[in-house]
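Notes to self after the call with IL:
- keep both proteins in one doc
- input above output, always
- annotate only the second one for now

Protein 1:
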Amino acid sequence: MAPLTRIGLAGLAVMGQNLALNIAEKGFPISVYNRTNSKVDETVARAKQEGDLPLYGFHDPELFVNSIQKPRVIIMLVKAGPPVDQTMKTLSVYMEKGDFIIDGGGEEGAHHGPSLMPGGSFEAYKYIEDILLKVAAQVPDSGPCVTYVGKGGSGNFVKMVHNGIEYGDMQLIAEAYDVLKSVGKLTNEELRQVFSEWNKGELLSFLIEITADIFGIKDDKGEGYLVDKVLDKTGMKGTGKWTVQQAAELSVAAPTIASSLDGRFLSGLKEERVEAAKVFKSSGVGDILADQAQGMNLIRAKSAEKGWDLKLGGLARIWKGGCIIRAVFLDRIKKAYDRNPDLTNLLVDSDFAKEIIERQSAWRRVVCLAINSGISTPGMSASLAYFDTYRRERLPANLVQAQRDYFGAHTYERIDVPGSFHTEWFKIAKQSKI
């Protein structure tokens, strides 16, 4: 009979299999279970092929649960919705008081080191902290990409917003591609060179890196490049929508993330090439910073509402590796929050503010170029509008509030006298016309 394992994992789709193998590779015996027996057998076979790893498969949920040492810890990686409830119902029958279920991303990260954002029971976190520190992505200058996020559902919320930021980043990159290709007439090889060059400096990131790779892939089913044969219809799993819904509920502006969602819904100058690429590189910092600022402000608002006391600098640190938005830029964001943990917005950090002021002309040129060329860039435009709105001391919202008071007696506040006021706008206007 096999010895009791340290941890269990239920759900052996791509991510589940790779995380299980990751844990076993780090020397932690693990039990695995899946509703479909073939997935269990497949995972066990992979473990043997990759070095006879300490991974044990079970077809029976009771045998699976009983194979784990107490207090049992089971990571659940199944599709959101009813499958989560069904799996919990199946396993909880055999679990005891004091056992833990961790409701857990992509294929490569799960196997070779993910960014982990655990929240909930601190006791549960400490019990498997040694495993998490080993399996998480390792970044040389900041260590394992894992930290205890906070109590309650804070870990899930942070992961959701991470995905919202990811939506925004991908939309901004797609818009840059559209303008460079449609206006600048760059070929795919030239686009590959541009994005490869961007990935050597301040824009170095996973998404920029894979974008350069994509432009270099030839179509294996015909002539030309594969990217040109991909249908322009973007799929989604719902996290972007949830992020925008939360932003609306918390009254937090997140226009870049929202526009990226709109972009997915709506999807159902030869001599100036080099210069255009340089301009885009300069404008990209502002776009990305606005996207990150919106995500961080959403997390900060939810943290305040729930009393989670989340550390935004710590989140930037664990996002530096093992996740889709990993980028060298995140180190600067971490340092901004290190300088001021109570920073109200990344846009007002002294270093970022100075840089954006210096680069804003390039940012505006890119948006104007797109508009004048009839190319839709909702992410870039929303990012710039976010910056322009945030930096204005006074906005035309005074007129909107006056309109609301006019037709609905919603009252308004004054800039010179405290309190709420209501004006009989219609009566005054009518009298003036007599």
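Protein 2 (the one to annotate):
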Amino acid sequence: MQGDTAVIGLGLTGQSVLRHLAPTGRLAWAFDTRPTLDTAPAEALVPNLPIYMGSLPESAWTGIQRVVVSPGIAVSSPVLAPARVRGIEILGDVELFAQATDTPVIAITGSNGKSTVTTLVAQLLQAAGLRAPAGGNLGTPALDLLTQPADVYVLELSSFQLETTFSLRPAAAAVLNLSEDHMDRYADLEAYAAAKRRILDGAALAVLPPELAHWARADQSLRIFDPAPPEDEAAYGVQDGWLCRGGQKLVPVSALAQPTAHMLRNALAALALVEPLKLTPAQMTAAVSAFQGLPHRTEHIPTQDGIRWINDSKGTNVGATLAALNSFAQRQPVILLLGGVGKGQDFSPLAQAVQTQARSVIVYGQDRDAIAGALAGHPDLTVVDSFEEAMALARQRAQAGDTVLFSPACASFDEFPNYVARGEAFKRVVMGHEQ
């Protein structure tokens, strides 16, 4: 019997889909838009499966009833036009995950902070003795988590993944924040927001910042998180040096390795998300105290030169850079490095914060002119071509007592394969100077 399911995209997510569907006998073919991609991993997973590269013959769609697409491929993509015309079901790996398990799920999205909150939620649950594998848009693809014993799954979900997810019913779901991102994929901010909001559709508990509280449904439990004194007994906030729910003290602020406003928000969201699991304050404090943050997210690179070097390579949008700038500008003079691929963003929201909080600004990369145009009023703004030149100039300008904040507000693809490679390059330059 010929299979009725096609798979488009053969990266890590696509390979997880092949692993999941191979035993079902429903696979018909796989396809990737990259003509030179190494297909050996896919061929090893499903021997003799037809694999198309670069282009797809029209005849391949005959008999197909559903197509599973990787997150990087938009539903509106031309490659999916034949599926749309034929009324073929288009779904993603997270939808397959949702159909395959009844185990409770905690789901997290947002423009920034997703990975940090996802990791912290998993550590909170593990501190309470629960098996809580974490993945999705972070690390392990969702479908591969199904092979791990679990009391609760913790999923980081991107807007791309949520576009093709319909059956997920999280025990708790959070939208951490919303700022422009992926404007090269979405028509406008509202289209991007609509994709993010989908995470709440089937959630029993919605965890939201005050500005997004109206997204919760009337029949949904709602928890607001905000690093201010809680307004009611259901709100999570900060008061008298404690992370609190209402008037209940949960975790001392001193337990956080980085007690910045951004990290306080992340920790409050994580505590709200695990509320249904009824952790004790002692369990919460143990997990929060042990959490040291993630690489490339406002990561301090220790040096002996008296300069505070901050690697925020994961800051790939304006909102992330604003959060990082607000976290560090109150402490020391800031030299800000930013640039790369702007993804169609409007950089003007950075202008006021940069004007008042950055002593010096260095802009580089593919969209340097657009960024520099938005920040043109800054008295010490320099534009260079490359990351290497930006780092050399930062080194030249930085003095003991300064903070050099590398928070690019952009994707890395003009010079690096991903934000990790970019962050590692930053660390190599900083540490190389130390040696």
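Annotation: The radius of gyration is 23 Å. Residues 162 and 195 are 6 Å apart (CA to CA).
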